[in-house]
Amino acid sequence: MSQTHEFQAEVKQVLDIVIHSLYTDREIFIRELVSNASDAMEKMRLTQLTEKEVFDDTAALEISITTDEAARTLTIADHGIGMTRAELVENLGTIAHSGSKAFAAALKNAGKQNDAQLIGQFGVGFYSAFMVADKVEVHTHSWRKEGEHLIWTSDGSTSYTIDDSSDQARGCKIVLHLKEDAAEFAQKHRVKQILEKYSNFVSFPVMLDGERVNTVEALWLKSKDGITDEQYTEFYRFAAHAFDEPSYRLHFQAESPIVINALLFTPTQNMESFGMGQMEPNVGLYCKKVLIDPKPKKLLPEWMRFVRGVIDSEDLPLNISRESMQDSALVKKLGDVVVKRLLKHLDKEAVEDPKKYNEFYSNFSRFFKEGIATDYTNRDAIAKLLRFESSMTEPGETVSLSDYVKRMKEGQKEIYYQVATSRSTIESGPYVAAFKAKGYEVLYMFEHIDEYVISSLNKFEDKDLKSVNAPDIDLGDSSEEGEALAEADATSLCDWIKEHLSTQVETVRTGKRLVGSPALVLTPEGEMSPQMRQMMKAMGK
Ligand code: ADP
Ligand code: MG
């Protein structure tokens, strides 16, 4: 039976760009297809632990790549989990399950940007095959016994067909019929050269025309001295399916309280900022090089979902089910150790190169703020990573809470901040002047959530965090020169104002916090600040 299906509209759009834009780094399609093969076999390895009935159960877990210059084809075969008919439609016909999701989302947001550049930033997963091939066949049989022998075929234009086949081994065999200008990818030496960059990160044998090209080695188990920056970056891209550069990396071994080998990265790009919704956790959990769970939910706190990499512990039992593992005390301990190390590492890096950190922070601050609000255990360590503009920084420059505390004036007991939409709103308003006059620094916060985040934090190094519009701040005598009103006059002025504003204010009183402005509004004790009210309103509360 032959069935023809239309690609989903978003896929068509992606394919159109993949096929027509002149992208220079076309060779990445090999990495994409090899990483899919590797993913499918990692999944197979896990499936075999729990399922008794597996089609073609003895097929070797390896990747075989064959070149044929005469026919101008390149074939990449694996014995992974394969796909059923429904999975072919879902995985290769829609964007929902594809690495090109970010690309499609960015296309929507980017308008008419340079498309080739976009591919470079995001990659397009399986569809990258169409950069070099004008016809792609996927021969497959699912690991499920009841699966069918199938061939998926497409020229990458608008549709694909699925035909019945016979005698497929378990897994996928992908045949690329190369375009004339991509003939190089049918040459063994060219393909070998490409594979050499990362095939050692693949935890299965990779064979090229019958010869083994890789020695399976887990980069995270090696000592740091023998690893170049380039290898780290290649590994990051391979393991995280990423296309950007890592911004920070942490590679460490620990023996106690538990044996850990970890290699972690933070990206440069924040994928959530492309309107793709929440990222999934993406630090793979391994036991002695064997992947146990590619996306463990409870290993790291949810706010750390932007972190990429690998955590390997030989103390983990290999045959434990994923469900019970997520709740195990061992996993919790692993996570705790790693989180502490990572936060400390970021803090150190931030102090060593503030400019680089600022750049990183400007993309990822949301996660740290989420961490303050949700991760009680690590709150103090996360707080050290926050940065704010202030009355003592230049516009665009920031200060950390630690530095704020270090330069607090003698006699200053609290940390002051104001939340408003912009620096100029704050500086032209009536609040900060009195603090400035005392030489007290005021942190400037520009996001609605800041108010909430800061009130969850409450204190930093034992100092209270106080909004400048809190009523109970005592700045002592204002240094303002000039005549004060006589007490009787002041009282009758207050009464007069109160009468006119009636229910809009609770009290009207004189105070010593005014420099250059005649009056200001404070938030009564126990009341929500205007920013907080706005945020609740935005959240529909
Ligand atoms: P991603 O790998 O990020 O999910 P891709 O576009 O590379 O996105 O692949 C889309 C989907 O197609 C995969 O998620 C997987 O379900 C399926 N797939 C691709 N290649 C294979 C393969 N060799 N074996 C089994 N499934 C595959
Ligand atoms: Mg992929």
Automatic annotation (TrEMBL):
<feature type="region of interest" description="A; substrate-binding">
    <location>
        <begin position="1"/>
        <end position="322"/>
    </location>
</feature>
<keyword id="KW-0963">Cytoplasm</keyword>
<keyword id="KW-0346">Stress response</keyword>
<comment type="similarity">
    <text>Belongs to the heat shock protein 90 family.</text>
</comment>
<feature type="binding site">
    <location>
        <position position="32"/>
    </location>
    <ligand>
        <name>ATP</name>
    </ligand>
</feature>
<keyword id="KW-0143">Chaperone</keyword>
<comment type="function">
    <text>Molecular chaperone. Has ATPase activity.</text>
</comment>
<dbReference type="GO" id="GO:0005737">
    <property type="term" value="C:cytoplasm"/>
</dbReference>
<dbReference type="GO" id="GO:0140662">
    <property type="term" value="F:ATP-dependent protein folding chaperone"/>
</dbReference>
<comment type="subunit">
    <text>Homodimer.</text>
</comment>
<dbReference type="InterPro" id="IPR001404">
    <property type="entry name" value="Hsp90_fam"/>
</dbReference>
<dbReference type="InterPro" id="IPR036890">
    <property type="entry name" value="HATPase_C_sf"/>
</dbReference>
<dbReference type="GO" id="GO:0051082">
    <property type="term" value="F:unfolded protein binding"/>
</dbReference>
<dbReference type="InterPro" id="IPR020575">
    <property type="entry name" value="Hsp90_N"/>
</dbReference>
<feature type="binding site">
    <location>
        <begin position="98"/>
        <end position="99"/>
    </location>
    <ligand>
        <name>ATP</name>
    </ligand>
</feature>
<dbReference type="GO" id="GO:0016887">
    <property type="term" value="F:ATP hydrolysis activity"/>
</dbReference>
<dbReference type="Pfam" id="PF13589">
    <property type="entry name" value="HATPase_c_3"/>
</dbReference>
<dbReference type="Pfam" id="PF00183">
    <property type="entry name" value="HSP90"/>
</dbReference>
<keyword id="KW-0547">Nucleotide-binding</keyword>
<dbReference type="InterPro" id="IPR003594">
    <property type="entry name" value="HATPase_dom"/>
</dbReference>
<dbReference type="InterPro" id="IPR037196">
    <property type="entry name" value="HSP90_C"/>
</dbReference>
<feature type="binding site">
    <location>
        <position position="322"/>
    </location>
    <ligand>
        <name>ATP</name>
    </ligand>
</feature>
<feature type="binding site">
    <location>
        <position position="78"/>
    </location>
    <ligand>
        <name>ATP</name>
    </ligand>
</feature>
<protein>
    <recommendedName>
        <fullName>Chaperone protein HtpG</fullName>
    </recommendedName>
</protein>
<dbReference type="GO" id="GO:0005524">
    <property type="term" value="F:ATP binding"/>
</dbReference>
<feature type="binding site">
    <location>
        <position position="91"/>
    </location>
    <ligand>
        <name>ATP</name>
    </ligand>
</feature>
<feature type="domain" description="Histidine kinase/HSP90-like ATPase">
    <location>
        <begin position="24"/>
        <end position="182"/>
    </location>
</feature>
<keyword id="KW-0067">ATP-binding</keyword>
<feature type="binding site">
    <location>
        <begin position="121"/>
        <end position="126"/>
    </location>
    <ligand>
        <name>ATP</name>
    </ligand>
</feature>
<feature type="binding site">
    <location>
        <position position="36"/>
    </location>
    <ligand>
        <name>ATP</name>
    </ligand>
</feature>
<dbReference type="InterPro" id="IPR020568">
    <property type="entry name" value="Ribosomal_Su5_D2-typ_SF"/>
</dbReference>
<feature type="binding site">
    <location>
        <position position="83"/>
    </location>
    <ligand>
        <name>ATP</name>
    </ligand>
</feature>
